[in-house]
Amino acid sequence: MTTPEIDTPETGITPGGTSGAFRDVLSKDHARRGKPPLHFVDMTPAQRIEKAAELGLPKFRVKQLANHYFGHFDVNAAEFTDFPAAKRDEAAAAFFPQLITEVTRQVADEGTTIKTLWKLFDGSLIESVLMRYPTRATLCISSQVGCGMGCPFCATGKLGLTRNMSTGEIVEQVRVAAKMMRDGEVAGGEGRLSNIVFMGMGEPMGNYNSVLSAVRQISAMPPEGFGISARNITVSTVGVVPGIKKLTAEGIPVRLAVSLHAPSDELRDELVPMNKRFNTTQVLDAAHDYWLASKRRVSIEYALMRGINDQAEHAQLLAKRLNHYGDNWAHVNPIPLNPIEGSKWTASKPEDEKQFLEILHRAGITATLRDTRGQDIDGACGQLAAKER
């Protein structure tokens, strides 16, 4: 079977992209824009104490600030009654600069899905999606402005990469969502943010240091972090093998999700340009090593595209590739492709989705058809394009 021709976006080379066949796809806005203001979560403990000393504050004040931020999701220093009134404004400016500003908020699924468009310090736009389910509340967060992976069926990938986000910009998405849940701003009343997925805009492994710092602070207990269990955090990748290997060595029990989308190199080369640098064998080997080290099953994300990767032979080959390792190490999440504006790619027929799942199940592969929350507000997987409405 042949696949349709794919439009190749204009490409450029970013640091680290100087070897191998793949080049990051750059946004026309790609440029050095300066760094975001340094935030409390960007600082080491020593830097926080040093900054406090510059303001004439003893180091115990740093723990008070951490408790307000991580324990109460609060950055409004004017209301910190346990803090010296004369130092509140200074402390707020020094530790809690505003990194993300809400532009628009769209609601779907009877108020249980909220997509927020954020503006960053340099005018860049990113999105996050908060989804409430009966037993959990999940926040899908962005780690880059745009994405340089260039997958042709993904709205974010078509934007190109503008820049990496700072740890502060990433973590602020979590703080705001946690506060929204606590304050009952999501349909269903007051609740708790329980799950984080790095499946918003960007390739998390392309911004490894900031993402890992964010993971550590999201999962640490207050007042060092938000106390969201690392086991409830998912870090996704299109298959950046060095990043998977680094994450394996960290020993943090987050879940790894690999956006595979095709069982063969021939097909995946067309759907996922990164495959030209790290092929399916390298990606699956690295993912399986993650399972061996963590004993946490790897999620295999697979966007089902009509007539492209959703036929019986694709499911059979996928099952064969996964079963090659001989243990129940992966959970496949087939995802009905979410449409993006102007795209020729469409979702699979329901009967093909059903057949795909049945073939995997018969082969002993655990697989669950993914829910497509937020599709009507372009908030579902692959739809985030950070457009002002």
UniProtKB/TrEMBL annotation:
EC number assigned by the record = 2.1.1.192
Looking at the record, the residues that make up the Radical SAM core domain are 133-376
Q: Which GO terms describe its molecular function?
A: 4 iron, 4 sulfur cluster binding; metal ion binding; rRNA (adenine(2503)-C2-)-methyltransferase activity; rRNA binding; tRNA (adenine(37)-C2)-methyltransferase activity; tRNA binding
**Region described as Disordered:** 1-20
Where are the active-site residues found?
E127, C381
The record's listing under Pfam families reads: Radical_SAM (PF04055)
Q: Which reaction does it catalyse?
A: adenosine(37) in tRNA + 2 reduced [2Fe-2S]-[ferredoxin] + 2 S-adenosyl-L-methionine = 2-methyladenosine(37) in tRNA + 5'-deoxyadenosine + L-methionine + 2 oxidized [2Fe-2S]-[ferredoxin] + S-adenosyl-L-homocysteine; adenosine(2503) in 23S rRNA + 2 reduced [2Fe-2S]-[ferredoxin] + 2 S-adenosyl-L-methionine = 2-methyladenosine(2503) in 23S rRNA + 5'-deoxyadenosine + L-methionine + 2 oxidized [2Fe-2S]-[ferredoxin] + S-adenosyl-L-homocysteine
Superkingdom assignment:
Bacteria
The UniProt entry's GO CC annotations, sorted and at most eight, read: cytoplasm
Keywords in alphabetical order? 4Fe-4S, Cytoplasm, Disulfide bond, Iron, Iron-sulfur, Metal-binding, Methyltransferase, rRNA processing, S-adenosyl-L-methionine, Transferase, tRNA processing
- GO terms (BP aspect): rRNA base methylation; tRNA methylation
User: Which top EC class applies here?
Assistant: transferase
The cofactor note from the UniProt entry for this protein is: Binds 1 [4Fe-4S] cluster. The cluster is coordinated with 3 cysteines and an exchangeable S-adenosyl-L-methionine.
List of residues binding S-adenosyl-L-methionine: G202, E203, S236, S259, L260, H261, N338
**Swiss-Prot/TrEMBL cofactor(s):** [4Fe-4S] cluster
Binding residue positions for [4Fe-4S] cluster: C147, C151, C154
Compartmental location: Cytoplasm
Q: What else is known?
A: Reaction proceeds by a ping-pong mechanism involving intermediate methylation of a conserved cysteine residue.
**NCBIfam families cross-referenced by the UniProt entry:** rRNA_mod_RlmN
Role played: Specifically methylates position 2 of adenine 2503 in 23S rRNA and position 2 of adenine 37 in tRNAs.
The family classification in the record reads: Belongs to the radical SAM superfamily. RlmN family.
Please report the name of this protein according to its UniProt entry: Probable dual-specificity RNA methyltransferase RlmN
Q: Which gene encodes it?
A: rlmN
